[in-house]
Each structure stands twice: as structure tokens, then as C-alpha cells.
Amino acid sequence: MDxxxxxxxxxxxxxxILNFILExxxxxxxxxxxxxGCDKPCLGPNSTGFIFNTRxxxxxSCCTGSLWTMPYTLNETTGTxxxxxxxxxxxxxxxxxxLAPNPDTENALIPYVSTRNFFTINLDCILAIRCLNDTxxx
Length: 138
Description:
The chain is of the alpha+beta class. The protein is built from 2 helices and 7 strands.
């Protein structure tokens, strides 16, 4: 019981939100479309019936307040991105996948693609997060 209380006392708002998003991505289906933002209670289909599986986010540095950018390589092309997908949380560290702009500009339903490039960060280094519109990533 002490370990549970200790975890709850030390859990930050950011880690709670990221855990919430992680659980949503694991479930990936729901029909409540009335709310938006980080606390929307589900990922779900839009009006086209397309099923979302990702709530992309941006991160802001607690040291400078600036937007985090990370390099990636996708199909032998390198770039930088400010859009990420939460993959896992271990204690006070989180692992994110770097998402890249979809090179298929004809497909507006999928603004980002998976890069399979990851990074892990201490949550104390994050000042804030911003949730973007739910989407599908491959």
C-alpha cells in the first residue's frame, strides 16, 4: 500500500496525461466525439468512419519553454520533427516515437507517419505538452 501511495504522490500531471493517452492508444476505438484536447476520453472514428490509433503531441522544454525537436530518418531521408507519439512510461521516464509529416500530401486523413525512431526523456525535463488532433499512424 505504501508503494501505491508513494507513486500517486510523486506522479506529475504530465505523467498522468501521458499515461491516459497511452491507455487510449491501447484501446483505439470509441464513439464519443463531443470533446477535444488532451482529456478527450477516447480515440475514435471521425465523420468518415476512419479509426484513429494515435493522439500526437508536442513537448515543451522546462529549461527554455521552447518546442522539442528531434531528428529522424525515414526511407533514407533525414529531417526533424516536433510531433511525437507516446510509446511507454517507466517511472519518471517516457519513450516517444518521432512522427514525420506524411509524404503523401494527397491523404489529408493521415498527416503524420511512423518513423520507427524513438527517444526517451526524463519527464522532469518537460514543461508542457500540447495534444494535436487524433489520427492514424502506420
